[in-house]
User: What shape does this take?
Amino acid sequence: MAGLNSDTPTPQSLTVHGQSRVLEVSFSDGAHFRIPFELMRIYSPSAEVQGHGPGQEVLQTGKRQVQLESLEPIGNYGVQPRFSDGHDTGIFSWDYLYFLGAKQEQLWADYERRLQEAGVERDAPMAAKAAPSCGH
Assistant: This one.
């Protein structure tokens, strides 16, 4: 099984480059990507980042210097990274890693657009989470 999509190429190698903060991935179809940790972190597939539906995404900031502390295999379909900011809930399937690698330019442009629309800087600290409302 390649990933969540059976047509996705499988990784032939995964190399974590801590100093340059990139995950280097080579796939069975010959594709080779260097995915920055920051890109992985801001596009984590976790509910904490993606929300639970369209329009619920949480814009991530202050992630330029994030490190990848560990990368645990999840079955035979993906990996679960633990980032230096404590984020560790996103499971990156092989097809999602391939998507991140193949669409980097588009994803960066979209991220920069969302930052501009929100009026925040890329390196701004994350805003504090609002306390849940109790309905009173």
About this structure: DSSP finds four helices and six strands in the chain. Residues 131-136 have pLDDT under 50 and may be disordered. The chain has one domain: 11-118.
